[in-house]
Amino acid sequence: MSQLEGAHMTAEHRATQVMEKIQTLASFSAMQDGILRAYLTEEHRQAHQQLARWMTQAGLETWQDEVGNQWGRKVAANPELPTLIIGSHSDTVANAGGYDGPLGILLAIEALDALQDTELPFHVDVVAFADEEGTRFQTTLLGSSPVAGLWNPALLDRQDAEGISIGEAMRHFGLEPDNVAQAARKPEETLAYLEVHIEQGPLLESLDLPVGVVTAIAGAKRFLIDVSGVAGHAGTVPLPLRHDALCGVAQMIATIEAFATEHEIVATVGKCDVRSAAVNVIPGQVQFSLDIRSQSQEKLDRCTQLLMQQLATIGEKRGLNVVHEQIYQAQAVPCSDRLQQLWAQVVESATGKDVCYLASGAGHDAMVMANLADMGMLFVRCEKGISHNPKENVQTQDVAVALDCLIRMIQSVSSYQTGTC
Length: 421
Ligand code: HGY
Ligand code: MN
Ligand code: MN
Known about the structure:
Elements: H1 11-26, H2 42-57, E1 61-64, E2 70-74, E3 83-89, H3 102-114, E4 123-129, H4 144-147, H5 166-173, E5 190-198, H6 203-207, E6 211-217, E7 219-228, E8 232-233, H7 245-263, E9 266-268, E10 272-274, E11 281-282, E12 285-294, H8 297-318, E13 321-330, E14 333-334, H9 337-351, E15 357-360, H10 366-369, E16 375-380, H11 396-417
Parallel strand pairs: 3-4, 3-5, 5-16, 6-15
Antiparallel strand pairs: 1-2, 2-4, 6-14, 6-16, 7-12, 7-13, 8-11, 9-12, 10-12
The chain binds (2S)-amino(hydroxy)ethanoic acid and manganese (II) ion (2 copies).
Subunit structure: Homodimer.
Cofactor: Mn(2+)
Keywords: Hydrolase, Manganese, Metal-binding
């Protein structure tokens, strides 16, 4: 009987359970007709209470840390042994799919349930990070950064759209903001960090492969760009005399698209807000967001500088004032070579297929957890590569393959620990 059939359940049965739990988690949403679960909200609390129940049923010891992350531990016989951490995020973007984040958490819980009768030479912690997307406070990785020892207390003043600061929201949630740094884990006690996540891209589907090994995670920078012109009467100001902020932004957005195409990076304007908008007023003030990414940190830094110069030139020619504020950045991060090798061996033995290695254009908690320990990721095929969209979907049989791979990976990490691989 394979490990997957531990506790007398077949691989398909376990995968079906994971898919059902995805739907249960999706019900903890601030939206009536979609999924939105943001940091330090009632939906966050309810989802983590449900995850804690599933962790307990899988035989894990559970606790919530100082940031609001939910943990579950498969305890090893010897308390002095190091810990393998497996996790992903439980928060979502607005109108999200059900798998981005939760799939990785539920696979980890299911894998440890299947291994309940197996003694491992290390503790295994499953973690649900409470904020990876940054949906509420516009800054991401708030759950995993303190765990990785990367906490900036200045962020406590960052406010949401209602003017509530992270510090206030933490207190309301029952957390003490001054204790956040205590969530940091010790590198010397951490064996490795693993994350299983949907690919959020089309490559695995195009190759007809259920899973793939991640090589690196793209670096990203995010900005809010304020463009100021002159508001005016739509009926009386001739075009040549206008300083129309929205026309300027329109030209900037087209320039961003052309620049990213030319330089083979990705750049996205996801939000655009016309201040005091009215049909008969020439827009005087517009703020838009810019998300720019590359697998190469050097290219990301160089392209960002070049692009900002082009936006400033557009502003000068139109008599607009352009100010940009960087609100987020994450360095491009390579995945551990040894964990990539281990994942590849596991994938080959579980699928009997060639191993696909692919980089991640999306950010993940793994990119900050790499500051704590060696990091390795496994991607799961998702339909048409669609994500951050209610149409996000995976197949149960691919979940079964991913679960099999994760169980084999946990078992092979012991060889990694002793350096025998
Ligand atoms: O934006 C990202 O890459 C991730 O989904 N937070
Ligand atoms: Mn994600
Ligand atoms: Mn996401």
